[in-house]
Design goal:
Blueprint: E1 2-4, H1 6-15, H2 23-39, E2 40-45, E3 56-60, H3 67-77, E4 82-87, H4 96-102, E5 106-108, H5 115-118, H6 120-127, E6 131-134, H7 154-162, E7 166-172, H8 174-177, E8 191-197, H9 213-243
Parallel strand pairs: 2-8, 3-6, 3-7, 4-5, 4-6
Antiparallel strand pairs: 1-2, 7-8
Keywords: Acyltransferase, Membrane, Transferase, Transmembrane, Transmembrane helix
Transmembrane segments: 22-40
Domain Phospholipid/glycerol acyltransferase: 56-174
Length: 244
């Protein structure tokens, strides 16, 4: 696991891609970055699995409202500007709506249209070579031990429709920065956050097939299994370091 020192993390400000971020999204990143530098002990691994160009889905587990920050940081450190797949209600929140529009993020209206139609903007973004960031569970995990739940099929649907890879990414530690149900950040002492990406999930045998419930469930299961396996690695590594 590669640890990133505060000085190294601060230096990433000048290395991260800026083109395509939009003014308000870029401003939000610049405002939040010092907090990440000062209050997070970041550990990252697997950035080499994120392709440098072309459409790709980054699929994360979901523990906390700070997950999107960790996910955006990871994407930028992987030299990709992410387009966040998020609930459409965020586009109706003052200030937040400017950030979402500026960054070219993708609203999803849940329960109002068919799944294929709701995800059409995401598919178009992927076909245009964008990096789309999503949380397949659709909400925070309800597992008392923090393990990922069964994922929804949206990630599988848009990846298979666009013919792009899905890179599974596990996050752990964000729940210590902002626990579910809390509105107060726990910044001190500095919290460790691990972000680990794995090799793209093998969906080759499902490409080109009709997107039936069976196909989507199979693809979704593979994505969630990959995320869970990597999360297990993070957690066992932490337990080992404590017992050593």
């Amino acid at each position: 696991m590669v640890g990133v020192t505060p000085l190294e993390l601060a230096a990433w400000t000048w290395k991260m891609p800026r083109r395509g971020r939009g003014f308000w999204f870029s401003l939000a990143i610049d405002v939040l970055w010092p907090f990440v530098v000062l209050f997070v002990r970041l550990r990252v691994r697997g950035r080499q699995h994120v392709p440098g160009n072309g459409g790709v889905v980054l699929a994360f587990n979901h523990l906390s409202n700070t997950d999107p920050i960790a996910a955006v940081v990871f994407a930028l450190m992987s030299n990709r500007v992410p387009r966040v797949l998020a609930k459409a209600s965020l586009w109706r929140v003052p200030v937040v709506n400017r950030v979402m529009r500026s960054g070219g993020h993708i609203p999803v209206e849940r329960g109002t249209v068919k799944a294929a139609e709701a995800l059409r903007p995401a598919v178009e973004a992927l076909e245009a070579g964008k990096c789309v960031m999503a949380f397949p569970e659709g909400t925070f995990t309800s597992d008392p031990d923090g393990w990922p739940m069964k994922g929804k099929t949206g990630v599988a649907r848009m990846a298979l429709a666009a013919g792009v890879p899905v890179v599974p990414v596990a996050v752990w530690g964000t729940q210590d920065v902002l626990p579910q149900g809390s509105v107060l950040l726990r910044l001190l002492p500095r919290k460790r956050v691990d972000v680990v990406a794995g090799a793209p999930v093998d969906l080759s045998d499902l490409q080109g097939r009709e997107l039936t419930a069976e196909v989507l469930d199979e693809a979704t299961g593979r994505v969630m299994d990959a995320i869970t396996t990597m999360l297990a690695g993070i957690r066992s590594g932490r337990a080992g370091s404590r017992s050593a």
